[in-house]
Structure to design on (194 residues):
């Protein structure tokens, strides 16, 4: 059993959340044309290049044995112009095989990010709202779900019970519920549809 001191645990937590927030911010702000680029190395040597991320919550739960960390209550995560608010933000990570050349504490990768309860993501001039947002880092898929899940871009909007965004292809799939159909509102510069 590996025992970590407080500074090592704090370093791991900060690294996990920095990576998670950067992945979510990149998902929401990167054009799909950049999807084929290789991800940046996230070891501690490159941590200095990471932009400042500020996360506040009523509580933080972290258990090294369960491979996840969770912010609970009035969660607000901010990085530059991107702001995520939710009741909970849970980060799941997986351990990478040991690297004998570069053994660094916190060499785990983020596997999944789950924001739940009154989720609101503000980025650029867009806002996404849902009861739950799940981002899978391996597939690059973000799923917004719950009543009235919605993405607003200026005057344009799409809403439905479940909105799935595929980062690598730029494709969006919107599903309805039994009670409410999918809704899209688009404004065009064209005078009419003739």
């Amino acid at each position: 059993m590996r025992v970590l001191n407080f500074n090592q645990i704090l370093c791991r937590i900060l690294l996990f959340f920095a990576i998670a927030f950067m992945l979510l911010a990149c998902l929401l702000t990167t054009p799909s044309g950049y999807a084929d680029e290789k991800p940046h190395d996230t070891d501690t040597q490159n941590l200095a290049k990471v932009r400042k991320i500020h996360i506040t919550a009523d509580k933080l739960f972290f258990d090294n044995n369960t491979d996840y960390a969770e912010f609970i209550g009035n969660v607000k995560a901010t990085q530059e112009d991107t702001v995520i608010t939710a009741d909970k933000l849970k980060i799941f990570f997986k351990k990478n095989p040991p690297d004998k050349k570069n053994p660094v504490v916190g060499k785990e990768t983020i596997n999944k990010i789950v924001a739940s309860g009154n989720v609101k993501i503000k980025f650029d001039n867009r806002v996404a709202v849902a009861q739950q947002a799940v981002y899978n880092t391996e597939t690059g898929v973000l799923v917004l779900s719950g009543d009235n899940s919605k993405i607003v871009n200026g005057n344009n909007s799409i809403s439905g019970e479940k909105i799935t965004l595929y980062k690598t292809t730029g494709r969006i799939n919107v599903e309805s519920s039994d009670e409410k159909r999918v809704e899209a509102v688009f404004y065009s510069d064209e005078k009419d549809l003739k």
Notes: Confidence is low (pLDDT under 50) at residues 25-50. The chain has one domain: 6-185. Residues 6-185 form a domain with the lipopolysaccharide transport protein A fold fold (CATH 2.60.450.10).
